[in-house]
Specification:
The protein is α/β, with parallel strands linked by helices. It has helices at residues 18-24, 61-85, 107-114, and strands at 4-7, 29-32, 36-39, 42-47, 89-94, 119-122, 136-138, 141-145. The model has no long low-confidence stretch (mean pLDDT 92).
């Protein structure tokens, strides 16, 4: 039931192209890639993201290339969201966390803040890794870790308003 918005994750090897993915989806499912979606008065956009560089884990050359490409994809998605936005709120979806539990700024958070995003939902962290996620408000943005085991395999309300909740 309901409407579902999909985003590519790090294990989605079956996702060959956005055109092919969209061609097999039913009318109530949407796939995002370098674009945005206006749905019931809310704008959704996002990108997969990538591992975050830290002082303990600097990115190698290949990881750095992927990280920078994902930043560009987020920027393209936010550009598309800006065209749809009007007065609508913007929710960014990412597979990888845009920041870690310490709440330190990253290239992703700087871009999200500069673009006036209201909320970010992300996953990727499971089991013992859940403690490494940031949950809460930072610089005006609400961050939600929504990996299945982080939310006890239950829907989570991310947009509270009159009418049906966005779970």
């Amino acid at each position: 039931p309901g409407q579902k918005i999909l985003l590519r994750g790090n294990h989605d090897y079956w996702w060959s192209s956005i055109t092919k993915v969209r061609s097999v989806l039913p009318p109530t499912m949407y796939a995002l890639q370098n674009d945005a979606l206006l749905l019931d008065g809310h704008v959704f956009c996002g990108t997969r993201g990538w591992a975050l560089p830290t002082m303990y884990y600097p990115l190698g050359e290949e990881d750095r290339k992927v990280f920078e490409r994902e930043l560009i994809r987020l920027e393209l998605s936010l550009d598309a969201a800006a065209k749809l936005r009007d007065r609508a709120s913007v929710t960014v979806m990412m597979h990888f966390p845009p920041l870690l539990a310490d709440g330190m700024s990253t290239a992703f958070t700087k871009l999200l803040e500069a673009r006036g995003v209201q909320r970010v939902v992300y996953g990727h962290l499971h089991g013992a890794g859940i403690k490494n996620g940031f949950i809460g408000k930072r610089n005006g943005i609400d961050y939600f870790l929504v990996s299945c085991d982080a939310v006890q395999f239950s829907p989570m309300c991310i947009i509270e308003e009159e009418g049906p909740p966005y779970l």
